[in-house]
Give the backbone structure.
Amino acid sequence: MSEALAPFHVMIVEDNPADVYLVERALQENCVAYTLSVLTDGDEALRWIYHASDHPPELIVLDLHMPRTGGAEVLRAIRSAPRLADVPVMILSSSQSPSDKNRVQILGFARYVQKPTMLEEFLSQVGGTMKELLTESRARKATP
Amino acid sequence: MVEFFQKLFATDFMPHGHCYFWRPEIVWLHVISDALTALAYFIIPFVLVRLVRKRRDLAFDWMFVLFGAFILACGTTHLMAIWTLWHPVYRLEGAIKAVTALVSLPTAFLLIRLLPNAINLPSPEQLRTANRALESEVTERKAAEERVRTLNAELELRVAARTRDLEIANEHLKRMNEDLRHFAYAASHDLQEPLRMVVTYNQMLVKDFSGDLSESARRCVGFSVEGALRMQDLSSGLREYWQASERGEDRRTLVRCADAVHLALQHLETAIAESGAVVTHDELPTLLAEEVMLSQLFQNLIGNAIKYRGEQPPRIHIGATRNASVWLFTVTDNGMGIPAEHRETVFGVFKRLHGKNYPGVGMGLALCRKVVERYGGHIWVDQPDSGAGSAFKFTIPIEATR
């Protein structure tokens, strides 16, 4: 199996299983071969960021609104972990408030996507963005 | 006359005892009687003087002094009567009598003058009665004062209790208001997510099980999705309304109304192109406000004018005139207009005059009113002078936005 065809490793931090399933569906609809690690809240994500030493994923999908530790805090932790410096992050937000988008942009490099209500839009927008970020990520790794 | 005073002490007469033939019983009767009388007369003035000294408050005290002098003079004449029994100084005796007369006569005269006043002097009994009346009056007054104090204390207690009631009621209202704000926030933010789930997963049902679903099952799912989407719209409308009432004052900057209108026109680009609407405006003022709010206001008014257009392509004009203390804005259109009986209700939350053929949730004008009231103004709708269509008018106080 060539390097390009190996499944992408995607990590998702999301407390709502319905949205985890939608993200999976979005990957499938966009013909992305993937393995998915799921962290179900911000605290679990922080523990993983600070203590795990496994191979980092090729994309982290992060829900912004989670109980206790929110996505913004997790993003800050990711951006201050040298091990995760090159990992692209996609923020998935249900908030329609523009201030959230601004906050995320201030916090650091991350793609901001607002969860669309309509299924087809969700699959194409979320899936398309993930595919784009994954492809870029692997292309960066391939070129020394 | 001179001779009289020269011989004042001369005894060139017969002693008075001769008149009594020196009969001892007569002589001594006179001597003892006169002596005792004189003694009494001399004691009386001292008593009177003492009385006046001790009772400084005594009425007519000068009268007592005068009376004392008169009695002293009388006493002296009695002494002289004894002396002249053996020593006939009748001139001196006469002179002393004359002095007595001089003192007695004014005393008598002044006493007569004093009589009415003296009669009017209250008797001790009268004084006692008056005193008793006064005492009872004082007691009554004290009782009345006590009653006033008691009433006052009761009143204070009642006021305190009432204040406490009001404070409790106020606290209750504050809590209710806070709850309501939380509810509005929840209804406008937290409902979005579950509604998205309902829409997305109903659509997933159709996508994944399309072959298994009958035509009527697909219609049912379609209605579910429609209902959830509409509820999302309602919730979004509520959020905009909530934001118009909750956003802090600190975001106000100088905003050119023309810029706010152009921003609104950008958002309405598609609707303007589709309807062939022409939007014009006068020179518009610069206000201290929030551009987002003003642009929302114009966007809703222009958007409504396009949505509820008549047969002709929409012609919309925005004007502004400056009155004494307010800017008066008018947004005039040639649309279908609003019947007079609905011109107040259209500004209510979730109020609509039209059915499903016109999209919307009935929050636009409620939001407009919220924005205008945020800057201390009023909004209403009239018929335009030209007749057909609507003329939305709103005021913005000048001093509040400068």
User: Anything to note?
Assistant: The radius of gyration of chain B is 58 Å. The CA atoms of residues 296 and 387 of chain B lie 27 Å apart. Chain B has a mean pLDDT of 88. Residues 124-190 of chain B form the longest helix (67 residues).
